[in-house]
Specification:
The complex is a heterodimer.
Chain A lengths: L16 H21 L6 H6 L9 H32 L1 H16 L2 H15 L4 H29 L3 H9 L4 H36 E4 L2 E4 L3 H10 L3 H30 L16 H8 L1 H20 L11 H31 L4 H37 L2 H16 L6 H11 L3 H4 L1 H6 L2 H13 L3 H9 L4 H35 L1 E4 L2 E4 L3 H11 L2 H34 L3
Antiparallel strand pairs in A: 1-2, 3-4
Chain B lengths: L4 E13 L5 E13 L2 E6 L6 H8 L7 E6 L2 E2 L7 E4 L11 H11 L4 H14 L15 H13 L5 E5 L7 H16 L7 E6 L2 H7 L2 E6 L4 E7 L11 H20 L23 H12 L6 E3 H8 L3 H13 L3 E4 L2 E4 L1 H8 L2 H15 L1 H12 L4 E3 H8 L5 H18 L3 E3 L4 E3 L5
Parallel strand pairs in B: 3-8, 3-9, 6-7, 7-8
Antiparallel strand pairs in B: 1-2, 1-4, 4-5, 9-10, 11-13, 12-13, 14-16, 15-16
The chains are: A mainly alpha, B alpha/beta.
Chain lengths: 572, 434
């Protein structure tokens, strides 16, 4: 008796209507991918020959192209996460270097990447649209990947020891352990970070689709370019259409992709107490009831198993002796040293030689201005959102209404509203140094609100009753009960908001509306101007300064504050 | 029962590197043999290295010296034929009961129908039928541990390693699972030929094992080997059962007395500072002294009876008894705890007097407390940072143990009002906050 599956066994039960539906879906998908990508290898001149149109009829197509770019970037980010974070977590030697690199990359202003990488990608596929597409996707990727990688790294480091031991003692290969234990364990946090990344990505779509660095200027068809064109032509109606389209797109992928993912990932949670509300999703219900998806899932699972069976078994590796370990240590040190030397040489050649001290002084002064702005704005936003967040968090009804709205606002690219601000500043002759500032925090303040709501929700009922029982009210209640309870959460939110605001400075400190240009003094405007002029030395200098500032603020202000809050105020 | 050795552990040592470059010995020259048809118990307090030994046997950890042979072959990694059941169950929350059980067989690349047949068999054997498609979070603790057992048995192991498998369960559930396991074992319905059970529960060890190895701490080592010849099924109330439990208590407390703290020696100020102190609250200490002082005990209590009356496991009771002994508030020997005159005085005193007695005993007999007090007295500011003492302690013990020891000292010193500790800036001082 053989276990061989006879060929064409599946023909025996005649085609069902599900098969027909499946065929239609697959062909439709292929066709969509085809049309969306058919222009990839077209010469750039063709792209310039068919200019963008502000007619809203084209918006669905533009939106589809943009979304495709975003998902391509998300896919890249996922691959990056699964490899980079795994490498960092599995090899202590590499981790020592990779994690700080990730931390710095996270602090480098994302928009800075675009100007630097465009030239590279364009030269990779000279004269083709593909190069520009790659540059755009890479730009979006840089706004999505870091926090995902961090989240997965954290998960890998916190897999319960007994689960790992169980997997090892039942002889799961490291490949199987990865897919059966480590990936599922990290999935809930990773999905949450993917949602954050998508929101972050939208913010930069406008900047990444309509790329102009000095003399190079490429406009890829997409919703970002549409908005850029509308701004250039001062077309408020078109901006309105774009906002509406974004609303619909965000709603669609939220309902069709992220809600089902969150609901599905809920079962991967390790805390095993059936408590709290189970996330639900209508789309997940539909997906789970169709045979097609279960077939896909099974196929994926079989593939993992098949690879793990055919992959060479390396688990019987002999224990490393001290001498080989020392040799690898030496090699690794040499490699890192070589890398550092190369980077130093590059810096010397590209940055330090061409930079004067006065130029450095200017950027530092501008960075201090931007820092002042960020801190002021965070304080103002805190004064507004902390009381509101606590109020909402303690009322389940209000929370049900506010939470999704805040989530949506955080996902909405705030830079769409910038033209309105320019309009107002010009019309009333306001001081841009003051009135452009709020734009920096427009999109990031919501993180403060979310986290405070979450913190207030987490205050144990008994603590609140005890306070009531002792008649603790008014300012005393805020000082002794509410504020200490939400501080750890607030700090988490403020860190995210602060990081986002630094990034947003590049688009918020220099805003255009047609020919009108409104500019505030700050490092963001400096980088934006340098980008527009194609001045690589100043771009790199500006980005380096901003990175140093962000890293320093994180290390010397936020991180100590975070640990202090964790230690002192964490409940339980 | 024949005398084939399933498992042979010879002179196993395990050390961990310390921060200062030295080595911390957690397991010293352990020898162990598991014969066919035997349940061997490793009995000891937490931190005695018994779980570490189990992981060495399972091939999950390397030993620093010595060897571990399974069926005559050296164990260098997880061996086929050795399966393990974990304290926290360690079942995968995203897999159903069936998928959890089948996982070990999938790793062996068996054909699908065989995986299915054997998984269902194991599920059936362990009393989980009907739960195949349930997710772990839908199950009670007892059912989750049954999944742990089914998953271990499905790979048809020769040796089953159990790491405190019942300690995370409530008393009744634990007893049901023990009985079910012993039934399956005595009826020979499981493929396993030998069992190693790690436990800190004396009665559990006597109930289940054929041989008990009593472990001591610092470093972890085997203190004695006690064969259990009572016929199965065993009855906890049977006088010979009680006698054996009593004997193990005596065994463990004699060793405790032998390793008890020496009185403070002025000529050697550092002596004794290096012992790890358990975190026992002053409430527990006073509570135990009060209980022992009054009838029916009248100052002397039988430890097994005390443990039973107070529903305390040895992991809870022994640290309290040891601390009392260290402070000369009680004497522990021969399975009994006897209050000293000072201990009796303490039990009968009011709060302020109690604090005075406690402070005296603490500063006289706990070298670390005396040391901290002396440093504070000598300094003009009467303030000393915690890190100063932490560094000293870390010459003797691991980082966490040093932290725990200092936390214990802080809580006792606060009760005794011997010196104060400010967590905000991590420093000791002589002033009490007004």
């Amino acid at each position: 008796m053989s276990n061989r599956i006879p060929p064409f066994a599946f023909v025996r039960d005649l085609a069902t209507r599900w098969d027909a539906i499946a065929v239609v879906i697959v062909i439709g998908l292929v066709a969509f991918l085809g049309t969306a990508s058919h222009g990839l290898l077209a010469p750039l001149s063709k792209l310039q020959a068919t200019p963008l149109s502000l007619d809203p009829v084209h918006l669905p197509e533009y939106a589809a192209r943009t979304t495709l770019r975003m998902f391509a970037a998300l896919g890249l980010s996922l691959i990056f996460t699964l490899t980079y974070a795994t490498w960092a977590a599995k090899s202590p030697r590499a981790g020592k270097l990779l994690i700080p690199i990730l931390d710095i990359l996270q602090s480098v202003p994302i928009l800075g990447f675009i100007s630097i990488t465009v030239a590279f990608f364009m030269s990779l596929v000279p004269g083709r649209v593909l190069g520009a597409e790659l540059a755009a996707i890479f730009a979006i990727f840089t706004s999505q990947a870091w926090n995902m990688a961090f989240s997965f790294y954290q998960s890998l480091r916190t897999v319960p020891a007994e689960l790992t031991e169980a997997a090892k003692s039942f002889h799961l290969s490291s490949w199987m352990r990865f897919w059966q234990l480590e990936v599922p364990f990290g999935m809930p946090a990773l999905i949450w970070n993917m949602m954050m990344s998508m929101s972050g990505g939208w913010f930069f779509v406008v900047a990444s689709e309509s790329i102009s660095v000095g003399h190079t200027s490429v406009t890829l068809p997409g919703i970002g370019s549409y908005i850029a064109l509308a701004i250039a032509e001062r077309n408020l109606t078109a901006i309105g259409w774009a906002i509406l389209t974004m609303l619909i797109v965000i709603l669609l992928y939220d309902q069709l992709l992220f809600r089902p993912l969150v609901a599905w990932a809920d079962r991967l949670r390790v805390e095993q107490d059936p408590g709290g509300r189970v996330p639900r999703s209508w789309a997940l219900t539909v997906i789970q009831r169709s045979r097609l998806t279960s077939a896909v899932a099974n196929a994926f699972y079989s593939a993992v198993r098949w690879i793990s069976w055919t992959a060479p078994v390396v688990s019987k590796r002999p224990h490393r002796t001290a001498s080989t370990s020392r040799r690898t240590d030496w090699l690794w040190t040499a490699l890192v040293a070589a890398l550092v030397m190369f980077a130093m040489w590059q810096m010397l050649r590209g940055l330090i030689v061409a930079t004067t001290l006065t130029e450095v002084g200017t950027t530092v002064k501008l960075a201090l201005l931007t820092m002042l702005r960020v801190f002021l704005l965070i304080s103002i936003a805190s004064m507004v959102w902390v009381p509101i967040g606590v109020w909402v968090g303690l009322r389940p009804r209000a929370r049900e209404i506010v939470q999704p709205i805040a989530q949506f606002l955080a996902a909405f690219p705030a830079n769409l509203l910038f033209p309105l601000a320019v309009y107002g500043i010009v019309a009333w002759r306001l001081n841009p140094d003051v009135w452009l500032s709020p734009l920096m925090i427009l999109g990031t303040q919501w993180y403060i609100l979310f986290n405070v709501i979450a913190g207030a929700t987490g205050i144990p009922g008994e603590l609140r009753y005890a306070a009531q029982n002792l008649n603790v009210t008014g300012w005393l209640w805020w000082r002794r009960v509410a504020l200490p309870a939400v501080i750890p959460y607030y700090v988490t939110g403020a860190i995210t908001a602060s990081g986002g605001s630094w990034n947003a400075a590049i688009v918020a400190e220099l805003v255009t509306w047609g020919n009108t240009e409104v500019k505030a003094h700050g490092l963001g405007a400096y980088i934006a101007e340098a980008t527009a002029a194609g001045d690589f030395h100043r771009i790199v200098l500006g980005i380096a300064t901003m990175s140093v500032f962000v890293v320093a603020i994180n290390r010397f202000f936020w991180r100590p504050l975070y640990y202090y809050a964790e230690r002192k105020f964490r409940i339980g | 029962m024949n005398n084939t050795a399933l498992l042979e552990v010879r002179d196993v040592r395990k050390t961990f590197p310390k921060a200062d470059g030295g080595e911390l010995l957690v397991l010293a020259d352990v020898n162990l043999r598991v014969n066919e048809g035997e349940i061997v118990g490793l009995l000891g307090r937490s931190g005695s290295g018994k779980s570490t030994l189990l992981r060495v046997i399972a091939g999950l950890a390397n030993s620093s010296a010595g060897s571990c042979n399974y069926l005559g072959k050296l164990v260098t990694g997880p061996a086929h034929g050795i399966a393990m059941v974990f304290q926290s169950f360690a079942i995968f929350p995203w897999l159903t009961v069936f998928e959890n059980v089948a996982l070990g067989l999938e790793a062996q690349r068996l054909p699908k129908d065989e995986i299915r047949r054997r998984s269902l068999e194991a599920i059936d054997l362990i009393g989980l039928d009907g739960f195949e498609s349930a997710y772990p979070r839908e199950l009670s603790g007892g059912m989750r541990q049954r999944v742990g057992f089914a998953r271990a048995l499905v790979v048809h192991p020769t040796i089953l390693l159990m790491d405190e498998p019942f300690s995370a369960l409530d008393v009744l559930t634990a007893e049901t699972l023990r009985t079910d396991f012993l039934d399956l074992w005595s009826e020979g319905r499981m493929p396993i030929k030998g069992v190693v059970l790690v436990t800190h529960n004396i009665e559990e060890a006597v109930l289940m094992c054929d041989r008990i190895l009593v472990f001591g701490s610092n470093p972890g080592r085997i203190l004695s080997e006690i064969p259990v010849t009572l016929p199965q099924p065993r009855n906890r109330l049977d006088p010979s059962f009680r006698a054996l439990v009593e004997r193990i208590y005596v065994e463990m407390t004699t060793k405790m007395a032998a390793s008890g703290a020496a009185p403070r020696n002025e000529n050697f100020p550092g002596l004794g500072i290096g012992s790890v102190l358990p975190r026992v609250s002053s409430n527990l200490l006073s509570g135990l002294m009060e209980t022992v002082a009054v009838p029916p005990f009248n100052g002397v209590a039988d430890l097994p009876k005390l443990a039973h009356d107070l529903q305390m496991e040895i992991d809870d009771l022994f640290p309290v008894a040891e601390t009392l002994q260290m402070m000369r508030l009680a004497e522990v020997a021969g399975g009994d705890i006897k209050l000293t005159d000072v201990g009796l005085a303490f039990a009968n005193a009011a709060l302020d007097e109690r604090k005075r007695i406690f402070a005296r005993q603490l500063l006289n007999y706990v070298p670390l407390a005396a040391h901290i007090r002396r440093v504070l007295d000598e300094r003009p500011t009467h303030v000393a940072r915690k890190s100063r003492f932490l560094d000293e302690l870390e010459d003797f013990m691991a980082n966490e143990a040093a932290e725990q020891t200092l936390r214990a000292i802080v809580s006792w010193a606060r009760y005794a009002e011997a010196f104060a500790y400010d967590d905000e800036n991590a420093s000791f001082s002589l002033e009490n906050p007004s």
